[in-house]
Write a structure and sequence with these properties.
It is built from 11 helices and no strands. It is mainly α and 291 residues long. The protein folds into 2 domains: 117 residues, no CATH class; 143 residues, no CATH class. Helix 2 runs antiparallel to helix 5 and helix 3 runs antiparallel to helix 4. The longest helix has 29 residues. The relative contact order is 0.09.
């Protein structure tokens, strides 16, 4: 028998342990389609069987020629009520296991009604309403899909490498959030987190070269003093060359991104955010190697 929501087989599968909800066990983390299927396939199949079997039981007990019987109360000892009660108990188990609280409340009303006088028609109405409640409640369980090509950025604690984390532990929060925002399609938010990372990098770079009051100066002032300090170093020294390259990268990021980010109406595409992730990674990796 096939309904609008469930497909019902003639024999029920064995009831195993209650399924674990992967989104409850690991909130705010990635859950694969396979994880979802392993959870939902068993629970929803058993729910579908228990609900779909109810009209089948009624149809098997009341022949079409006995249609008026559908409107008569069943005797308290009627075997049909016992069969229906078992299916409803199964539905309660699986509604509870997947946290369908409103559906569970309706199941309990159904169970109480089965203890007293009830007609076959009422049984069908209760079963139909339970099916609809489950369908409505399932619509309230929403999940966000992360495209496969951006999964590696989600919850990535070493987006810029272990060396950068070791040298700049204060940026880890913004680094993880930048990756999360990119993975979830939030280009502009990703850029803002990257700029906070750059703010730390610029200040550390300046302080390493003797620039004072770096937390009170803007990028351009720090960059001017950085360049002045670099010019005073031996020009052919490999360390000087690396610092010059880092300064050039910093200047490129400043021109291309930071000045514009300060304007609240600006938005950034995922392509632009991805490009900036690469630039910031290069700058922070360079910085980690020279200070």
């Amino acid at each position: 028998m096939t309904g609008s929501l469930f497909t019902v087989e003639t024999q029920p599968p064995a009831i195993l342990d209650k399924p674990s909800q992967p989104w409850i066990d690991s909130p705010y983390s990635l859950i694969s389609w396979s994880d979802m299927e392993q959870f939902s396939a068993r629970a929803f199949y058993l729910l579908g069987y228990s609900i779909g079997a109810i009209p089948m039981e009624v149809a098997g007990s009341v022949e079409e020629s006995q249609f008026p019987v559908m409107q008569l109360d069943l005797p308290s000892s009627d075997p049909l009520k016992d069969k229906i009660a078992k299916h409803v108990a199964t539905a309660e188990t699986w509604c509870d296991s997947i946290d369908l609280s409103f559906s569970c409340a309706h199941v309990k009303r159904f169970q109480e009604r089965l203890k007293g006088e009830i007609t076959p028609n009422e049984i069908l109405r209760y079963a139909s309403e339970l099916r609809q409640r489950i369908a409505d409640e399932m619509k309230g369980k929403l999940f966000f899909h992360v495209p496969a090509d951006r999964v590696e950025f989600y919850s990535q604690r070493e987006l810029f490498g272990a060396d950068v984390n070791a040298k700049f532990p204060s940026i880890v929060f913004d680094m993880v959030e930048a990756g999360n925002c990119y993975a979830m399609g939030r280009g502009t938010a990703c850029v803002f987190h990257l700029m906070r990372i750059m703010e730390v990098g610029v200040q550390e770079f300046g302080a390493n070269l003797g620039v004072t009051l770096v937390q009170e100066k803007n990028w351009q002032n720090i960059l001017d003093e950085i360049n002045k300090a670099i010019k005073a170093l031996p020009p052919k020294d490999p360390a000087t060359v690396e610092m010059s390259q880092a300064s050039a990268n910093l200047y490129s990021v400043k021109l291309a991104w930071r000045n514009e980010v300060m304007h609240p109406k600006d938005t950034y595409t995922l392509e632009e955010a991805e490009n900036l992730i690469g630039q910031v990674k290069i700058f922070m990796a360079q910085l980690a190697s020279i200070i």
